[in-house]
Please model this.
Amino acid sequence: MTTNSLRHIAFIMDGNGRWAKNRLLPRVAGHVKGAAQVRSIVQACAQRNIEHITLYAFSTENWARPADEVSALMSLFLKYLKGEIVSLQRNGVRLKVLGDVSAFSKPIQEAIALAEEQTASGERIQLNVAANYGGRAEVVQAVQRWMREHPQAPAESFGAQELESHLLTHGIPAPDLLVRTGGECRLSNFLLWQTAYTELYFTDVLWPDFDESALDQAIAWYQGRERRFGKTSEQISAR
Model:
């Protein structure tokens, strides 16, 4: 078994609705339970010396869900932002929201700004919350930002480094491990550029049931992987 450095875990938190359905509860009950699970996973990752975790909280496509569900998700997001600041500060968690926050209500935008400001000194772990986020849009907007800054530059001067410096994740290491709960096996427009060499772990466990034991199983699976980044096993062994 190899020993892989694990600095950043990304999570696609899937299965809240099915968790509720299995218990004959409304979907919002699953989202409430899922939101509560976030705190324990953040704490567990911090205890395991993970430097970054990124949660896929709300995609650009999620606006198409039923209006009452979207409203419930927005209420939960606002409640989390307001209710977790003290806990985040106490535990050394720095919060960063990735996505187009302009689509959110003014109270949510203000709560995001306040939470980011008040947790800015956290040094134990960075919690990145992808909200109103889409991977394709992120890449397109990064190119557009660069073009606005360099209107006369030839196309040949634009490359991977220029793109990465204009992504929402600039300064954040690429995920080493991506965990998707709920049994689906796709990225769903999440961190498309950043996950080029990420190890992808899919589990049938629904997000509200994803506990420390499930996290450790994912980490153990990751540690068993050989990360070659285009090289051969012989080259890796010779390092």
